[in-house]
Write a structure and sequence with these properties.
Largest sheet: 2 strands, antiparallel
Structural class: mainly alpha
Strand content: under 5%
Distance between the termini: 50 Å
Helix content: 40-55%
Length: 90
């Protein structure tokens, strides 16, 4: 629980790693590594100055999260999803 408190108190210019980003996104560091190599568009823009080490700026992560919150609410359909597959017998 101590890590969660510290992540939310960090300054916007603070550089964070995979552990802190995982706490911020409510996932695991392993998932961050996986997404970084397979689907980097699903993560905030990362810093390139650290070579192979994954690093992000806290302010950019917060801004990215705010932009994701607005876009997901608009993109959610109001209707129920259609069922795929063979219909059930009545």
């Amino acid at each position: 629980m101590d890590v969660v408190v510290n992540v939310h108190r960090l300054h916007d210019d603070q550089v964070i790693g995979t552990n802190e980003l995982a706490v911020l996104l409510h996932t695991t560091p392993a998932q961050i590594y996986k997404l970084s190599s397979t689907e980097p568009h699903r993560l905030p823009p990362r810093l390139k100055v650290f070579g192979r080490k994954l690093a992000w700026r806290m302010g950019a992560c917060r801004q990215w999260l705010r932009s994701q919150d607005g876009s997901t609410q608009e993109a959610e359909p109001a209707a129920t999803p259609t069922r795929l597959g063979r219909p059930r017998s009545a």
